[in-house]
Specification:
- The chain is of the alpha/beta class and 152 residues long.
- Helices cover 45% and strands 24% of the residues.
- Strands 1, 2, 3, 4, 5, 6 and 7 form a seven-stranded mixed β-sheet that branches.
- Strand 3 and strand 4 (62-63) form a beta hairpin.
- The protein is globular, with a radius of gyration of 14 Å.
- The chain starts with a strand and ends with a helix.
- The protein binds flavin mononucleotide.
């Protein structure tokens, strides 16, 4: 069965709630979902999924530490082994949101393929933001299914 990995970091709960909304969108599309904090995730998770979502709070216009830690640890062990794998990003912020650029730039270094536009949310996601996050999950689920059907 196709699988979507969601790796996120969250200090005060906003991005964790966003990650849970993305996970709901994936699950509603009938695709397996694994949700992990950056410190708990390993490169094996990235190798084993068909699509990945990276979620972060904005920390001084950059991604948060736990997601950066995961990406730093995963880089060499996955080098040239995840080329073309679909990814998407979601960010929560306090009014800036420039951290999105850092996530997209690192994903490019991994040679991942952007499957959906980054969803950026101010503060705790609710209402339309939840719908957009669930939509992101749904798009990633479809991308994961296509990749799995094509044999990875
Ligand atoms: C150390 C730190 C730096 C931050 N820097 C920014 C920033 O540069 N731009 C911004 O829009 N928000 C900034 N914020 C606000 C957070 O990104 C925002 O509150 C976010 O929703 C928190 O997510 P979380 O609840 O998942 O930790 C910063 C927060 C912290 C703790």
């Amino acid at each position: 069965m196709a699988k979507v990995l969601i790796v996120y970091c969250s200090l005060s709960g906003n991005t964790k709630a966003a990650a849970e909304a993305v996970a709901e969108g994936v699950a509603e599309a009938g695709v397996d979902v694994v949700l992990k904090d950056g410190y708990a995730a390993s490169y094996v998770d990235l190798l084993g999924c068909d699509a990945v979502a990276f979620g972060s709070y904005d920390a001084f216009s950059y991604m948060g530490g736990a997601l950066k830690d995961f990406l730093d640890r995963a880089y060499y062990p996955t080098l040239d082994r995840v080329t073309g794998k679909p990814f998407a990003a979601f960010i929560t912020h306090g009014g800036g949101g420039l951290a999105a650029g850092s996530v997209e730039s690192v994903a490019k270094s991994f040679k991942l393929r952007k499957a959906a536009g980054t969803v950026s949310v101010k503060g705790m996601p609710e209402g339309d933001a939840i719908d957009m996050l669930k939509g992101l999950g749904s798009v990633l689920a479809m991308a994961a299914q296509s990749r799995a059907d094509a044999g990875g």
